[in-house]
Amino acid sequence: MWREWIPFWKPGLSPYGGDVDLLFAGLLLASSLVLGLLIFLLLLFCVRYRAGNPVDRGNHDSKSWHWEVGWTSASLVIFLLLFVWGASVFLEIYRTPQGELSVFVVAKQWMWKVQHTGGQAEINSLHMPVHRPMRLVMASQDVIHSFFVPALRLKHDVVPGRYQSLEIEAVTAGHYHLFCAEYCGTDHSGMIGEIVAMEPADYAKWLNDQAPANSLAREGGALFREFGCSGCHGANSSVHAPPLEGLYGKPVPLADGSIVTADDKYIRDSILLPRSQVAAGYQPLMPSFEGKVSEDQLLRLVVYIKSLADHAP
Amino acid sequence: MTEPDYLNSSYTLRSWFLTTDHKRIAILYFASLIAFFFIGGAAATAIRIELATPQADLVSSDTYNRLFTMHGVIMVWFFLIPSIPNTLGNFIVPLMIGARDLAFPRLNLLSWYLFVAGGCVTLFAIVAGGIDTGWTFYTPFSTLYSNSYVIIAVTGIFIAGFSSILTGLNFIVTIHRLRAPGLTWYRLPLFVWSLYATSVILVLATPVLAITLVLLATERFFGVGIFDPKIGGDPLLFQHLFWFYSHPAVYIMILPGMGVVNELISCFSRKPVFGYKFVAWASLAIAAVGFLVWGHHMFVSGQSLLASLVFSFMSFIVAVPSAIKVFNWTATLHKGSLRFDAPMLYALGFLGLFTIGGLTGLFLACLAFDVHATDTYFVVAHFHYIMVGGMVTAYFGGLHYWWPKITGRLYSEYWARTAAVLIFFGFNLTFFPQFVLGAEGMPRRYHVYPPEFQVWNVLSSGGATILAAAYLLPMFYLGYSLFFGSRAPANPWDAPGLEWQTSSPPPELNFESQPVVTRAPYQYRTDFTAEPQNA
User: Fold this and answer.
1) Are A220 and A271 in contact (CB under 8 A)?
2) Which residue segment(s) compose the domain that A20 sits in?
3) Is 50 exceeded by the pLDDT of residue B100?
4) Does domain B22-530 have CATH number 1.20.210.10?
């Protein structure tokens, strides 16, 4: 297998890992050829044209533009091929997440907190089944972090103030490093975790063993009442606020005439910045919860509202 | 002795600190840069010693973070950016174009004072307790979370930025207005072309850095929401602004090095640079396209996929003029008459190291690989190959080449060659293992690391020991030559450039009479009569 030709390079274990490895091998090969040619020419010229060596040195400046055009176009063509190759694999890595399995990742100085929708919580580890794409919804509580799993050839920054969705999938069971790759302060290098990729049966067992009394949605429901959301959005409320049952995943017409899909990001933004996207037919009455809810609480609220998707409005 | 040279015309302190002579200002810069190089180098040494083992043993994490920040800030803004332009450029450009001085001699002195003032302010931040943000000052860490002297440090960089702008302005006007009679643009040495391109970037990009740093300080000091989402800002806005300056700044750092290498390769091949016009315009192409690639630092930041595609494409395009230069330098050797004096050894070392740095730049421009390699040691290795393997090697090469002109003394050729070879091997041993570390996935700016990475880290630290010793060597033999070296003739390399047509060291006003230029540069060979460039 060609991947073992590169001694320090362990094969990538994601569905596109082989493509990244092949790209790396291609880059290495092309660079080695160029570098090899350069070193060969340098040595050849240094020996052959050393001062005092009696060789022919005539006619050295004829038709220089032939050479210029030649090596400029050769470089350009090779560079464009590499660009297209790199871009096509890139679009595969960062494709819109397909998996129905969602996991929330909250990054904070200096740990990774992981919440499964069943309520299972982990710190500095992420359990996942193999051969099943998982959708990571990532948020940062403070500064910029970066979710980096070298074995899966996967990295994405976790920028505060927004959700980042990322698809992750492993093809081989095992324990892999999870690093924070964006410098985030004192214990940046201690912000290390592990990805535990398991056979589906083991994963189901793990979920079962870890299952807490309350699912995330139930905790979200409790927060929904605690923060007083139910006072307006509840069925018996006298305030004219949009009902949230059956909302998730549906198109929402906004007051400014545009239409957005009610996804995680929309719900998060509506809690923190309610006046930025007001639903059509409603007054901008809702107060902002910016600074009042943590990322942990936010994701529970999002999961709760998501769990209402199947209820009739 | 007919006329006093610029060194012995006066010995008073006043004659140095209030001088408007570009040659003396170059020496002032040189002395201050040595100090900054040693401070930055000391930080690097501490980092490499700490990383020899996976655990934390020498310093705490907070100290480690301050060390790499100090290393980056000092080396980028107080060594690399001013290195060649303000020392060799300041000294040699007026001589090369047959001028008595730069266009604005007093502005030149002001630029040095601003540089030293900025440097002192930043050093104060370091002494007071340090900065722990990394040289990139990413928000919101730098604005709301860091407990260190961020505002003082950025104030120092802000001040030094004006020094850059004034220097750039001075060079642009000088090169336009003060060329000797007959010295047309295509008769200029390529060193002048590359400094012209550098100056354009200095003048256009540095103000953006200044604005960015002011915004950063505004958010940190007054709590105005610009970059932190908690108070309504956008963290990526900072990265866009910062890299809009800092990517072109990479070309500020490498273009002057490329310029020096033109002079060295041509001189020690006894031949004009192959494809003169292509090399000259490649410098300007790099300066122009270099402004359109900043987003390649942000492929994994969450910027739009389309933006990433465009920036990746532009990054491949900007590599073309660099490739053109490498091919032309290699072709210059063809049918030359090669001598391997110390400056040439540095130039050949530059060729190899810069090529490795450039090729690995293509790896990082390649989107899918960058997702894996960005923010790892692969990036660290890549930019050190450009900045240290390229720029610092070229700086040392240029320093040796023009040393007899600047000081009027000859250094020990034996020690100079030894240092050149040691630097080359020490450098590769330090930084090549870091490519491997990055490919294996070791993130940068890690104080402690998983033990599986130790072997390559030990190799790298071992190399750093050799490199540190090799960088110290020139201090001794160059310092020795200042006092005990034999007197240099006006033209020790038998070179045709104007700077060699005056005495060593040059008189205060550079030339006895106004030189007139009648031919293309680099006319080394006597059998070489026609204009060399028929391209």
Assistant:
1) no
2) 2-49+62-93
3) yes
4) yes
